[in-house]
Structure formats: C-alpha cells, structure tokens
# Entry
Amino acid sequence: MASFLEYTADGADTKTGISIATFKKEEIKVRVDGVLKTEGSGQDYEIIDWNTNGFTIDWKDSARPTSPSIVNVYRVTDYSPAQAVYSAGSSVKASDLNDNQTQVLRGLEEADDQLIQT
# Structure
C-alpha cells in the first residue's frame, strides 16, 4: 500500500476509495496544484468514512478542484509520541511492538515514495 495518491481532478464532489493506511486521519495531507488544502468542517474538504486503511475526500463547493488540476493525497506519519511507550516493570504487548514497527516502516515508505515522486 502506497503512502500517496496522485490524480487529475474531474470536478466531482468526492474522491472515494483512497487506500492509504494511517493511524489517524490527521496524518493525511492534500495538495491541489501544489497548494496545501485545509481539512475540517467549513474548510476546503472533509475526510469521511475514515478507517485505518482508507477514506473518502468530500470537497466543499468553493474548494473543489477543477479539471485538469493535479491532486496529491499523502500521508505524513506522526512520530511524536511513539504509538506505544514502554515503562519499566510493565508488560510488553505484541500489538504495541507491531504498532511501533509499523510506524517506523511507514516513515521509510514515505521517504521512498518521495524519491519516486521527484
């Protein structure tokens, strides 16, 4: 699964079926023709139907990209803090180890994908 999606806008209200894995929706960033857009109610777009494996972008009328704008949707993994923090004397769960490893691997994937995009 890639850490980004680039597509040419067709003027539609939504872009569905975006498969970028994230820990939280705030890790998703969107640029239209190189300009960073703002997510949230009353902003440029909203991320709807979000889950850790994908989401849908719902564009607001005033910010909807027109054809043939280039839209870049990408993940910026949050590293602070780590997904799981360990304490002396506490147990270490496999799911915590997996989440921390996934966090690091996503960062490597993002760096690799940036090389592909340039």
Observations:
- The chain has a mean pLDDT of 91.
- The two ends are 19 Å apart (CA to CA).
- Residues 64 and 88 are 50 Å apart (CA to CA).
